[in-house]
Amino acid sequence: MSSSKRSRIRHHRMVVFSLLSLLVLTLVLPLIPHAVAELGESTGRVANPGTELWRDVRQRDRSIVGATQVKGVDSGVLINVHGEDWRQFRMQQLIPYGAALMGIVLSVILLFYLVRGPLRMQGGASGKKIQRFNVFERTTHWFTVGIFWLLALTGLVLLYGRFVLIPLLGPDGFGLTASACKEAHNLFGPMFLVAILMLFVTFVKDNFYVRGDFTWLLKGGGLLGGGHVSAGRFNAGEKIWFWIAVSGGMVLCVTGLILDFAVLGQGREVMALSHVLHGIVALVVITVSFGHIYLGTAGVEGTLSSMTTGNVDEAWAKSHHDRWYAEVKAAAADADETEPGGVASPAGEG
Amino acid sequence: MFANLVDGIFWDVALWVFAIGVLWRILSIFRVRNKPDYSEPRGSGFAGAVGANLRRFIPRSEMITRTRLQVVAGYLFHLGLFALLLFAAPHVLFIEAQTGLGWMPMPYWAFIVAAQLSFIGLMLLWIHRVMHPVTRLISDADDHVAALLTFIVMLTGCMALIEQFDGLRVFHRFTVELLMVYFPFSRLMHAFMFIPSRAFTGAWFGRRGVKA
Fold it and tell me: Collapsing DSSP states into helix, strand and coil, what is residue A347?
C-alpha cells in the first residue's frame, strides 16, 4: 500500500471519528444539566433558575423581602404566603366550627329548657320588691347590649352571609347587604370600646372572687340538683360571664381597631392574625352570651325585671342571692336607724 | 323605579311637607297673643331672653349630679348630629347641588368621630329615657318614634358611606324623607323652637326682674 493511500484511509478514519465524536457530544452534552440537576436535588440544591424564581416569589423555603421604590408596609413582598393559610383557616375551620359551636350550645339550652324548665323562686313571688340595679347600671347594660348585638349581627352576616343570604337575596342583594353591614360594623366597633369601659367601671367592684364562689361552681349554681346555692350580689357564673365579656370585649376592640385602622403601620400578617383572633373570640363571646340571655330571661323566673325596672322580688333575691339580700336588708335597717321615720331611697336612682 | 320615586316625587313631597309644616307650626305659635302687661318693668325683657338662652346651655348646679349622663349624652348627640348634617362631605355636595351654596366639608376622620359620638349620645339618651321611671312615664309614642327614626336615618347614612351601592344611598334618602314628613308634627320641632321658647320664658321673667 502506497503511503498516499494509507494517508487517505487515516484521513477518512479521522473524519468518521470526528463525526462520531460530534454525534456523541451532541447527544450527551444537553444531558449534563439534567445530570447536574439530579445530583443537585439529591444534595438539596435546585438549579433550574425558573423554578428557583417562583419558589422565591411564593416564599416556599424562606421569607424574602425584595427591594422596591414603593414605600409602605410589606410593599417588598410580592405574595403574602400566609394569606392562603388565613383563607384556609377561615373557610375550613372558623366558619364550620363556629357554626357548630353556636348550634350545639343553642340546642343544649333548648333541650335543657324542655327537660328542666325555668328555675322557680322558692315559695313563689312575695310581691315585695327590692332594687337590684339602678338607672345608670341598667343604661350601661343595655347600651352595651345594643352595640354588642349590632356588631354581632353585622359580623355574622359578613362571616356566614355567603352561605345563608346569597340563596335568599342573590349575589347582588348580598353584595349590598354585606357592604352596609361592613360599614356599620366598622363604625360601631370603636363605640364598643366605650361600652366595655363603662360596663367594667360600673360592675367591676362586685365581680371579684369571694369566699363561696368556688362552692357555687362545684354545685353548678344549683342547676345540677341540690337546690339553690348561696351567693352574694353576683354569683360565680355571673362573675365568669362578666370577665369573659370584659376581656373578650377588649380583645375584640383591640383586634377590631387593628383591622379598622390599616394605616397604623401594621403588616398583613398582623392583620390576618388579628382577624383570626377577632373571629374566634367573637364566636366564643356570642356563644356564651346565649347562656347569659337564657338565664336572664326564660331560664330563671323573675330575673328579667332586674334589668328592665331595676327591681326583683324579695323571694327571688333570697333564692338566688341570699347574702346580697341580707346585706341590702341590713343597710336599709341602718338607714332607718340613722334617719328616724325616713325611708331608704333606692341607691343611685337617677 | 323606586330610586326614581325617592329622588323625584317623594323628595318634592317631603320637602314641601317639611317646609310648610315647620312654617305653620312656628307661625301658629307666634300668632298666640299674650294679655298686655301693664305692670312697671323691673328689668329688661331682652336681656332676660338672651340670658335664659345662654344659661340653659349649662345645667343647674343643683341638678348636675343627677343629670350628668343626660347632659353629656345630650351634647354628644346634638353636636355630632349638627356636624354630620351640615358638614359631612356628601351632605355639603347635596346642598350645593340643590341650592348652589357650598362650604368646606369636614375631613373623613372627623365625620367618623362625629357619627360615633352622635350614636353614643342618641343611644344613651333613649335607653336612659326608657330606664328612668320618671322619663319613662312622661314619654309617649312620639318620643320613641322620633328617636327611632333619627337612629335609622343616621344608620342608613353610615351604611351608605362608601357610596358603592346606589341602593344604600336611595334607602338613606328615603328614610330622610320619612323623617322630614314626620318632623313638623313631632317634638323634633324643638330644633327650631328651643331658642324662641327659651327667649319667651327669659323675657317674661326678665321683665319682672327674675333670672329664669
Answer: coil
